[in-house]
Specification:
This protein is an alpha/beta fold and 324 residues long. It has helices spanning 2-7, 11-17, 21-33, 41-51, 64-79, 143-163, 183-195, 229-237, 246-250, 259-266, 296-315; strands at 83-84, 90-92, 101-107, 117-124, 129-134, 137-140, 169-175, 198-205, 219-221, 242-243, 270-274. 40% of the residues lie in helices and 17% in strands. Helix 3 packs across helix 8 (229-237) and helix 4 (41-51) packs across helix 11. Residues 1-35 have low confidence and may be disordered.
């Protein structure tokens, strides 16, 4: 089967697109070994649909809706064989005026030495709740912002939880109170720093539910030039995976998502992956940010392209991601 696949690959593809052959073999290995764990558009649809349903009323911090979202994420972690990072999955925020908590799990690495290095993979799962009505709808459901990023991280957690395919330890974190000023990530970064954890890198996912228009890459990276993560990602995931979006720099998105606290507090490569380019989605913080507007084939592709990236950096013998 492998020979058949390889024989069908056109050699010019490697020259024209400058794909790293490592990505090809990692991707094939993931597809052939995952046995049902390959990202599922149907599964991601189910996750986004529930998290952005009217039942959860926009997942505002401290609300009944975000409590239900947290319970859902905890159940998913347990089903995937992911352990709580703390005494439970819940990490109560010390910097919030209302009761709020992150949901944090961990997969211990398999290598006796490398497991002491941690890669944190995160997304915020809160949104803004009830807003002034628009066309009779007052629930800002937050499908793209950020049920899409949450479902991306959850699918990554599902794969690594089932496959246990990482030498380094992986922390999966869902942040609360992002919409209140990045409070969840600020809290967790402080707690982890105080505990003396050896954080290697932080990978954040924000608004990944809709493909970009007229771009020759799948995702952009905030803080593109602050480290070599884009180049490393493209080496493992294909040369058209990560690109530079000028608007991300113009609007200083690097400091406006949950990656920033880890950059600031740890001083390690910490970036956000996104496909919201300011032109491809008109429902930011609007009641119209509904699950039906998401592109689930795109969401599945994001996960399938990121799997070899995370597996590559998690298993490399030496730390490849460097600050510029």
């Amino acid at each position: 089967m492998l020979n058949t696949i390889l024989s069908g690959l056109n050699r010019t593809v490697f020259r024209e697109h400058k794909l790293n052959i490592v990505w090809v073999f990692l991707s094939l290995g993931l597809l052939l070994s995952s046995c049902g764990s390959v990202p599922s558009p149907k599964k991601m649809n189910e996750v986004v649909t529930y998290l952005s349903s009217d039942e959860l009323k926009g997942r505002d911090t401290g609300s009944e809706g975000i409590e239900k979202a947290a319970e859902f994420l905890e159940d998913e972690f347990e089903a995937y064989g992911i352990a709580p990072f703390f005494s439970s999955f819940r990490d109560t925020l010390s910097n919030s005026s209302t009761l709020a908590y992150n949901v944090v799990g961990v997969i211990e690495g398999s290598d006796p030495r490398l497991k002491e290095e941690y890669i944190l993979i995160g997304a915020h799962f809160d949104h803004i709740g009830i807003v002034p009505p628009k066309d009779g709808d007052e629930i800002a459901n937050g499908a793209n912002d950020n049920a899409s990023g949450t479902s991306t991280v959850l699918e990554l957690a599902r794969y690594f939880g089932k496959q246990k395919a990482s030498k380094r330890s992986l922390i999966f974190a869902f942040f609360s109170a992002e919409e209140k000023g990045l409070l969840g990530s600020k809290h967790l970064a402080t707690v982890l720093k105080d505990s003396g954890i050896n954080l290697y890198a932080m990978l954040n996912f924000e608004m990944t539910g809709v493909p970009m228009q007229d771009k020759d890459y799948l995702l952009y990276l905030t803080g593109y030039e602050k480290s070599n993560l884009a180049a490393i990602s493209n080496a493992y995931g294909g040369s058209d995976l990560i690109g530079f979006l000028p608007k991300a720099e113009e609007f200083n998105l690097f400091q406006r998502s949950d990656n920033y606290a880890f950059w600031e507090i740890f001083g390690v490569p910490s970036h956000t992956f996104s496909s919201f380019d300011f032109e491809n989605y008109n429902y930011y913080h609007q009641p119209g940010d509904e699950a039906s507007r998401m592109d689930y084939e795109h969401l599945s592709e994001v996960v399938s392209r990121m799997l070899p990236v995370i597996q590559g950096i998690a298993n490399a013998e030496n730390a490849e991601i460097k600050l510029n």
